[in-house]
């Protein structure tokens, strides 16, 4: 059963298990340890490997043990003064309870030694050397008592009577539930209807009705939970409640469509015009499971989706939903009470509600969205409807938002820290201290240089009950082990038709420029942490908005990341939604012994790349001259292939794209405006789409048409001539070419857009980036004006003007000739070319 390459080391397991089971700032709080749930579900929670099966988590756990180490630690009795030794080997004590509790791959035998031998899975039969188990538990309990007296945040250990089991009795009787007890609880919960899982109160009533089928100890535990609930107390840390959560989570893995206690409906407004509604659903039995949605789509798709949580289904049937704002630009409703002083929006299809002038945005199928208002105003507008019934009992404080890294860890980057949702909390303490800013029922963490490490939260409710938990801040995301792939529901965007031309063999040599890591690296670290699954565009955009200056467009930032290979776009085949996937690193040759590293490079990944490059005398250089564009990372040296091999990176030679002059280079669009609504036309002065229909006074009119169940369509018209495009970039560039109104200015080897949101087609931008070793991305041109920049040599701009025509205005032709003559003279003299100095843009072609 032993795994050859465990995901986590024995040291990590030891620390996670100590925190999970022994510390009062762990999930169990300050309740005494009189039982230990060592089932696979609890092990998953302890180390944060929630995606592993029961078999998978047991394999990972058992991979840190061998028969020899088990014999060494458990084989002999220890003295009562060996408590610290027992604490440092606590994972072995958890193993003794795993042997008693697991029903997976351990056989049906009740013989402890035989079951341990089966779990070790080394073909050597049962294990005899377990004489020290009881003494280890006793020494640990005594040591913990002494540490508690010193003020250490540890749970008191109350050992059960071992009875006649003088060697293993403590472990056998601590392990709760037993295999049979857990099976009985699972059988009862499996019979729970969807309505029984509407909230915790209904579930407790269901269990009370089925309590005759539960073991006696579980009946007593159930009575404790009911008493806590009736007193409006929090029981999230009660061991029996955690067991219920784990069993429900296990059942939901087997039946993904099964109802869950916790749920969340989330909306994000995305798209260039902010009128696209990205909707997502999350559910689970643990609050951490709500960090990841199980479904995403348009609001119109939500209306026909069959597997929505019961509470959301009831809200949609009523025709009115109220959502409140949370940090990060999301609008949500979940199983918890809505903060009284929050901002809210109303979604409704009821005529008497949407007749209000505050409803402007169309959501689809008769539904409209209101402008933001206070919660009191929203409830007055809806007559008190639109909010699902909430339970009174909630933890005093809950950690939310930020960038979760799993296992109770959060990314420690300024602007991306988690916040604390305050329920009935009247006093809040964080140790070590963090400055907090209180607003709308939440406490926002302040500070740009917080130290990494674990923080303890103590919250005192209005009823003077204490809630304790903890979290850990980590500055750097761990190395990604999984990379998402494109699903069958999605396809790549097609911005231009091209063929691969010759290999790029004379790209500019890499150089260092600017400072890195910088403020932008905080964003990159957060995006790198999302490598495991595709993310809705709205989620990424809201993440960017939390850090970048207000004058910059988040879509320009996203485009810069796409051109650098950090992320890749997935277009939904059926609706307007877009998803983004984080891409693994790759090495792209651009000349002899020079290459670029493209793809996502978080801090840990970049450190690893630096180490491997240094080992083989390959130099790593970074151009980060533009502080809000993706950095260009280059390698020089004749052993670059060894770096790629050692890191498992893909390596290939860049090619130059071959394009026919527009409009022949544009993809053919078969759709027409029939059945679509015109929502705006392009205003050349404002450089954006403004509401209204096509302006017939224009020579060439560019209009945007929408349908809720399909992608946007862009239409360019002049009298009898019509051009259709599904890509915004294609429409803007072709409209610019036809109307002879340039979107870019070129001068001094810099191509600059006249405003945000205007880009070259992706293959062209990647070619320019690779050839010039220059960042492509946004930059502040003036204090309140930004543009999008490319490094483009004189020969390259000639190619671009032949393909795209009047899209590009070339400035300073005479100066260009003088520059070319000057460069020629410098070459004859053997001098460094002036355009290579001070991080300038290189000459290519």
Structure summary:
The protein is an alpha+beta fold and 845 residues long. Helices cover 32% and strands 24% of the residues. Strand 1 and strand 2 (276-284) form a beta hairpin.
Written account of the structure:
The chain is of the alpha+beta class. The protein has five domains: 10-176, no CATH class; 181-254, no CATH class; 262-382, no CATH class; 397-474, Immunoglobulin-like (Sandwich), CATH 2.60.40; 490-660 and 744-810, no CATH class. 32% of the residues lie in helices and 24% in strands. The chain is built from 26 helices and 40 strands. The strands form eight sheets. Strands 1, 2, 3, 4, 5, 6, 7, 8 and 9 form a nine-stranded antiparallel sheet that branches. A six-stranded mixed sheet has the order 21-27-28-26-25-29, sandwiched between helices. Strand 31 (677-683) and strand 32 form a beta hairpin. The chain is globular. The two termini are 60 Å apart. The relative contact order is 0.07. Residues 104-108, 813-823 and 825-845 have low confidence and may be disordered.
Set out the fold topology.
Blueprint: H1 10-22, H2 40-47, H3 54-62, H4 67-74, H5 83-88, H6 90-101, H7 112-120, H8 133-149, H9 169-174, H10 179-190, H11 200-209, H12 216-230, H13 239-254, E1 262-270, E2 276-284, E3 295-298, H14 299-304, H15 310-318, E4 320-326, E5 330-334, E6 343-348, H16 351-354, E7 359-364, E8 367-370, E9 373-374, H17 375-382, E10 397-400, E11 404-406, E12 409-411, E13 419-422, E14 425-431, E15 436-439, E16 442-445, E17 453-461, E18 466-474, E19 490-491, E20 499-503, E21 513-514, H18 520-528, E22 535-536, H19 537-545, H20 554-563, E23 567-572, E24 578-582, E25 586-591, E26 594-598, H21 603-615, E27 619-624, E28 632-636, H22 640-647, E29 650-653, E30 655-658, E31 677-683, E32 688-690, E33 701-707, E34 710-718, E35 721-725, H23 728-739, E36 744-747, E37 750-753, H24 762-772, E38 777-782, E39 785-791, H25 794-804, E40 808-810, H26 813-829
Parallel strand pairs: 12-18, 21-27, 25-29, 36-40
Antiparallel strand pairs: 1-2, 1-5, 2-3, 4-5, 4-6, 6-8, 6-9, 7-8, 10-13, 11-12, 13-16, 14-17, 15-16, 17-18, 19-23, 20-30, 22-24, 23-24, 25-26, 26-28, 27-28, 31-32, 31-33, 33-34, 34-35, 36-37, 37-39, 38-39
Helix pairs in contact: 1-2, 2-3, 10-13, 11-12, 19-20, 21-22
């Amino acid at each position: 059963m032993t795994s050859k390459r465990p995901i986590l080391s024995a040291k990590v397991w030891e620390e996670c298990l100590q925190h999970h089971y022994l510390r009062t700032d762990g999930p169990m709080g300050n309740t005494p340890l009189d039982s230990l749930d060592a089932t696979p579900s609890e092990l998953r929670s302890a180390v944060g490997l929630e995606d592993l099966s029961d078999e998978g988590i047991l394999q990972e756990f058992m991979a840190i043990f061998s028969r020899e180490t088990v014999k060494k630690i458990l084989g002999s009795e220890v003295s009562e003064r060996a408590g610290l030794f027992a604490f440092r080997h606590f994972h072995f004590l958890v193993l003794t309870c795993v042997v008693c509790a697991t029903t997976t791959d351990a056989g049906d035998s009740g013989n402890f030694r035989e079951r341990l031998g089966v779990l070790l899975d080394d073909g050597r039969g049962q294990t005899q050397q377990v004489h020290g188990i009881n003494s280890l538990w006793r020494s640990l309990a005594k040591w913990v008592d002494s540490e508690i007296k010193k003020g250490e945040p540890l749970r008191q250990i109350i050992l059960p009577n071992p009875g006649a089991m003088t060697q293993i009795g403590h472990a056998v009787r601590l392990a709760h539930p037993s295999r049979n007890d857990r099976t009985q609880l699972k059988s009862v919960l499996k019979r729970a209807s969807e309505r029984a899982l509407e909230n915790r109160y209904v579930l407790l009533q269901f269990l009370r009705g089925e309590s005759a089928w539960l073991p006696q100890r579980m009946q007593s535990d159930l009575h404790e939970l009911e008493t806590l609930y009736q007193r409006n107390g929090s029981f999230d840390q009660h061991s029996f409640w955690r067991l219920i959560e784990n069993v429900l989570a296990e059942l939901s893995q087997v039946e993904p469509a099964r109802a869950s206690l916790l749920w969340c409906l989330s909306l994000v407004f995305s798209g260039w015009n902010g009128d696209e509604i990205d909707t997502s659903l999350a559910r689970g039995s643990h609050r951490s499971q709500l960090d990841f949605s199980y479904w995403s789509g348009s609001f119109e798709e939500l209306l026909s989706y069959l597997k929505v949580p019961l509470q959301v289904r009831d809200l949609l049937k009523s025709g009115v939903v109220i959502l409140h704002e949370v940090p990060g630009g999301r609008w949500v409703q979940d199983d918890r009470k809505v903060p009284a002083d929050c901002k809210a929006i109303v979604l409704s299809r009821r005529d008497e509600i949407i007749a209000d002038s505050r409803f402007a945005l169309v959501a689809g199928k008769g539904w409209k969205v209101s402008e933001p208002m206070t919660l009191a105003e929203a409830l007055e507008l809806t007559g008190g409807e639109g909010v699902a019934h909430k339970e009174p009992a909630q933890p005093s404080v809950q950690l939310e938002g930020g960038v979760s890294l799993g296992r109770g860890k959060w990314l420690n980057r300024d602007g991306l820290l988690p916040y604390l949702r305050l329920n009935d909390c009247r006093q809040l303490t964080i140790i070590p201290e963090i400055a907090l800013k209180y607003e709308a029922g939440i406490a926002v963490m302040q500070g740009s240089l917080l130290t990494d490490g674990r923080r303890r939260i103590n919250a005192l409710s209005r009823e003077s009950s204490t809630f304790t938990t903890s979290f850990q801040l980590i500055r750097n995301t761990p190395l990604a082990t999984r990379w998402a792939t494109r699903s069958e529901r999605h396809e790549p965007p097609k911005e231009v038709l091209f063929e691969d031309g010759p290999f790029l063999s004379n790209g500019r040599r890499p150089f260092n420029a600017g400072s890195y890591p910088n403020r932008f690296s905080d964003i990159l670290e957060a995006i790198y942490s999302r490598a495991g699954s595709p993310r809705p565009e709205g989620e990424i955009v809201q993440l960017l908005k939390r850090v970048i200056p207000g004058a910059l467009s988040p879509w320009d930032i996203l485009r810069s990341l796409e051109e650098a290979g950090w992320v890749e776009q997935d277009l939904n085949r059926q609706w307007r939604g877009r998803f983004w996937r984080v891409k693994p690193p790759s090495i792209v040759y651009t000349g002899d012994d020079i290459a670029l590293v493209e793809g996502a490079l978080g801090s840990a990944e970049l450190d690893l790349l630096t180490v491997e490059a240094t080992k083989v005398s390959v130099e790593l250089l970074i151009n980060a001259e533009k502080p809000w564009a993706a950095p260009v990372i280059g390698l020089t040296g004749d052993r670059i292939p060894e770096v790629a091999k050692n890191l498992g990176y893909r390596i290939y030679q860049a090619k130059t794209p071959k394009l026919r002059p527009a409009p022949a280079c544009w993809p053919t669009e078969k759709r027409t405006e029939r059945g679509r609504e015109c929502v705006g036309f392009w205003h050349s002065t404002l450089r954006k789409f403004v509401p209204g229909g096509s302006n017939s006074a224009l020579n060439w009119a560019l209009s945007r048409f929408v349908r809720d169940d399909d992608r946007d369509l862009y239409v360019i018209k002049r009298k009898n001539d019509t051009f259709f495009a599904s890509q915004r970039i294609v429409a803007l560039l072709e409209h610019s070419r036809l109307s002879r109104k340039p979107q870019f200015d070129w001068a001094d080897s810099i191509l600059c857009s006249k405003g945000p949101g205007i880009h070259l087609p992706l293959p062209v931008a990647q070619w320019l980036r690779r050839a010039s070793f220059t960042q492509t991305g946004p930059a502040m041109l003036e204090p309140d004006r930004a543009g999008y920049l490319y490094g483009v040599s004189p020969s390259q701009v000639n190619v671009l003007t032949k393909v795209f025509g009047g899209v590009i205005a070339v400035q300073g032709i005479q100066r260009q000739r003088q520059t070319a003559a000057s460069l020629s003279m410098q070459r004859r003299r053997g001098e460094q070319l002036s355009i290579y100095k001070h991080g300038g843009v290189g000459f290519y072609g």
